[in-house]
Known about the structure:
The protein is of the alpha/beta class. The protein has 13 helices and 14 strands. Helix 4 (75-87) runs parallel beside helix 10 (278-290) and helix 5 (103-115) crosses helix 9. The chain binds glutamine.
Amino acid sequence: MTRSTNEDMGRKLNPRIEGLAQSAIRAMTVECAKVGGINLAQGICDTPVPHVVADAVATAVADGFNTYARCEGVEDLRRVLAKKMRAGGLDYDAETEIVVTIGATGAFQIAATALLQPGDEVILFEPFYGYHVSTLTTLGLVPRFVPMAPSASGTWTINDNALERAVGPRTRAIVVNTPANPCGKVFSRGELTGIGKFAAEHDLWIFTDEVYEHFVYDGLEHVSPAAIEGLRERTVTMSSLSKTLSVTGWRLGWMAADARWARAFAQVNDLVYVCAPTPLQVAAACGLKKLGPDYYAGLARDHQRKRDQLCAALSEAGLSPHVPQGAYYVLADSSRLPGVTAMDRAMHLLRATGLATVPGNAFHTAGRGDNLLRFCFGKTDADMNEACLRLKRL
Ligand code: GLN
């Protein structure tokens, strides 16, 4: 006999989880697989892993790095990360201020869990990365949105008044994702200084997600908020090796903050994950030591070329692109495609070309983003060439 919903009433999902649907990013990956399409939806990053990183995995396993690591991460990796951050103007102590996490997603979850309480409000810029929002809401936190507007030159701008409008007595943190997913905004030093001043005035944490730190174009500079004078103390700096080393499936990220907070982050990391995968941490440390500035410069150069190739194809297809300054996504105007919702248009494009994209409303509050699709260009040259050919034939 099947149980009726009524009989299950005593046992129900946590209401904070009820609204948690499969992300549109993943949904489009599933749709793409059904038709054997080219996945420009999920930022999978299926470009080759550098040999020095890939080759180090088998060695780490053979050398016996197969058991739990310390909850704050393998020491060698923390040292390498501290050195890498120093090159970006950040000074964190490897022993007491860095925690290796399960991707930046794990880091973000830990920061929110360790520092905020249900009912606290957190400011995010819109378009936003949906995982930031869902992480907050499932923890009982309340997102407040500051809309960004695309300017004629393609950059996305923030209105200072909008920040003031979003802040209230329960606001505790502001999220900065630079370079930003999905719009590719690279926050300038001036903008970050302004955000820092605002955060100081309202005594807010600054949660930064810098996973696209090496994907910055047109000679622009990636600025870490914590490198700006006076901001280190209130900032939790988060990043990941996923995109930098093309290892999105390894789930290796990290977070860095003043030692007073980092200790608690390590404890939460222990509680939920115990540690990030040990042999992968060892391999990443080994690989990172061998990769110099040329490698990072190459990432930016290659992806700038792919950005230009994709944007040209989108323009030709009548899907006018908002040319990104960084990260590896393009938001393009899809209003010429048939359909009412962004999902209709994404599905139309998938059926017509075999190209999967993410509907723009996934990055916006209700009623916005329906004319946008997000295209990922963190792809191999072969996939990019084929995808651009198909767009031009659209
Ligand atoms: N960050 C990637 C994206 O935006 C992957 C997200 C995911 O699969 N959760 O596509």
